[in-house]
Amino acid sequence: MHSSRIVTLLGVIAAVLGLLFTGANTDAAELLPQLNAADPAFPAEISTIWGGFDLWQQIVVVLLLVAVLVMALRPDRANPMDRNSALIVGGAGALLVLISVLAWFEGADRADTLAAGLAQAAEAGVIPAAFDVTPSIGFLVLIIGSVAATVGGLFSLMKQGELG
Length: 164
Hints:
By secondary structure, the chain is mainly alpha-helical. It is built from 6 helices and 2 strands; from the N terminus they run H-E-H-H-H-H-E-H. It is 67% helix and 4% strand.
């Protein structure tokens, strides 16, 4: 299998793994079900990055990942992807990067909102202390995987002399 295809496939695998991480890290995760019962404004749990996506985002991400996989696994895998396949992989990968970065920003906003809610709950004496909430490293894994998928497509174009 050609190295550009391997890079693309590793990128897809990393992106899928990134989607499976929780969206935020906090020591207050075990308190969330009780806080949610008292105030539905609190989430009952911290969802995965995938679970934090809207349905339309999930559909777009699946379509992009499938497109990248299909192009990377087309026949004649010992050679770089053909020009059209490489362009599709590069474009789909770039869209995945954009979606990943936007998801990271949204995840950071959600983490800030949860941290503010936990601080208010601590001030009211509902929980013993305020807790930090940070976006998970899964967003970084998702972004790196998306970038790798894009690079795989661009690498195929470079091997064919299309970009250099």
